[in-house]
Structure formats: structure tokens, C-alpha cells
Design a protein that fits this description.
- The chain is mainly alpha-helical.
- The chain has 5 helices and no strands.
- The longest helix is centred in the N-terminal third of the chain and has 24 residues.
């Protein structure tokens, strides 16, 4: 018999694997593919965010901020200029 703790650990591992696979896919996307994905699934994303607990929302914001900071720290000056041009 599988305990509740073991079940939760299994779910956590599955979620971690799925999240890693998603990050790999999105990292390999072209800008147009990323835009298409964002346009196709905004309603799903909004609903997912709405059902998060406050702790999950806080974690999501912290992770997003960390990813954002890491992305800009790793840029070359040329990438930084190019990124600002595309974000106008």
C-alpha cells in the first residue's frame, strides 16, 4: 500500500520532470513560436494562476523574478540592446 507521503513525493517528481521538459521546450522556441504559444493559451494560463494558493502565487512571482534577473545578467551588451528594441 502506498502512503499519502509517497504518493505526494511521486506527484512532486512527475511535476518536476514535466516542468523541466516544458522549460527545455520553451527555451528552444523561436520568438514567433513563443508568441503563438502565449496567444493560444492565455485563458488557460489565467485560469491556472487564479486557482493557485497565495503561497504558490508568491513562489511563482519569486521564480519569475529570478529567471528574469538571471536572463538579463547573462546578456551581452548587444543582446541587451536588441532585446530593448524588440520590447518597444
Amino acid at each position: 500500500m502506498v502512503s499519502e507521503r509517497q504518493s505526494q513525493e511521486s506527484l512532486d517528481r512527475i511535476r518536476a520532470v514535466n516542468a523541466a521538459a516544458y522549460r527545455r521546450r520553451t527555451k528552444a522556441e523561436t520568438p514567433s513560436q513563443a508568441q503563438n504559444r502565449q496567444e493560444i493559451h492565455p485563458e488557460q494560463q489565467r485560469l491556472y494562476i487564479e486557482i493557485q494558493t497565495p503561497a504558490q502565487s508568491q513562489t511563482r512571482r519569486e521564480v519569475n523574478a529570478t529567471v528574469h534577473n538571471n536572463r538579463f545578467e547573462g546578456e551581452t551588451p548587444a543582446q541587451s540592446i536588441t532585446g530593448s528594441i524588440h520590447n518597444v
